[in-house]
Amino acid sequence: MFFQEPKKNAKNFKQRFLVLVIVLSLILGALAGAATSFLILQNLDQLVGDNGLKIEKVKTEKISLLEEESATIEVVKTASPSVVSIIVSKELKDIYSSTGPLDDHFNLGPFGFRFEQPQPQLPENGEQKQEIGGGTGFIISEDGLILTNKHVVIDEEADYTILTNEGEKFEAEVLARDPINDLAVIKIDADNLQPLALGDSDNIEIGQTVIAIGNTLSEFRNTVTRGVISGIGRRVEAGGNLGYSEVIEEAIQTDAAINPGNSGGPLLNLQGQVIGISTAISRAGQSVGFAIPINEAKQVITSIEKYGKIVRPFLGVRYVMINKKMAEINDLSVDYGALIVQGNNSDVLAVVPGSPADKAGLAANDIILQVNEQKIDQNHSLGRVLARYAPGDEVELKVFHDGEEKTVKVQLVEREIE
Predict the structure, then answer these.
(1) Looking at domain 310-417, what is its CATH homologous superfamily?
(2) What is the three-class DSSP state of 356?
(3) Which pLDDT belongs to residue 417?
(4) Residue whose C-alpha is closest to residue 408's, from 395, 418, 417
């Protein structure tokens, strides 16, 4: 018995030790498994989280695209009743007595897009009216004021008819043609109309989505195109068939398709606000269109609403814009600004007697460098900068006079333009 007990204890010890090893192994295995599972789950959570962010981003982008599409549809529905087609017509005898058919759209330099109506056949009596062109406009007041491009209604001998999107026709009267911008205001005998909201073109950004609505090819009224703002502050020179040309300063460039007939139509943001007036296209490139910023037109609209005509501020100087080449040839001290000059005839004075400029002491050969904080250069002509102000406004001019700079204050007066 003495020798058998140790054997039994030894056997029990081995069994207990084996159980302990197994238990410890299970515990360690469980701990290791838990740790591994934790790490896997943590990484999995991270992966799911990352994928979740990506999925959410894609989802957000899809929602954004849908929202943009819905916004576009809503803008078109709201704006279309306020966009009108302008039909230009003349007596055939008047057409054939002129230099050629009316050009319905601007061209850009030698590469401008030219769109001409086919030459009509003149009947024997010569009294028949013929549609010779067209354009677009948009309603800016409940009582029938419509804004368009000046070149659309430039012909004083033509008749102008307004066609609404619902098919109603109105005879139109041209109230005023702006001598500075390619803008005009016409009037129809109607009331309770829906004017478009005007936005702020100073706050637009490149890449921003825009919508153009216009009477494309003078045939497909209220055609809608969409694109983005491709550039801001462009300076382009545009011209048409009849020798009429215009410099468009600070133009908005867009790739929204602008075709002949779109002239004068609104360029809208996704809030349905007008930020520009479609004006010109380039024949040299594709989807290169330009619009006049709406802020350039606000003073004209206010003037028409207040006075029934365009009233512009008057400084009283005759000037030419300075560029680098001109400065080099004439050995000028500066290569920008507006040089006050006398005309070729002695009776064409550089400064109008009794004008604000005369009272401020401005004289021939002075150079106006700045109006308030705005530098006067090729992209900001003196006339365009002053056009932002109203008669009665006081402005501060920085002037280069007799070899040195000086600052003078002038109060602008009214220059009425019929």
Answers:
(1) PDZ domain (2.30.42.10)
(2) helix
(3) 57
(4) 395
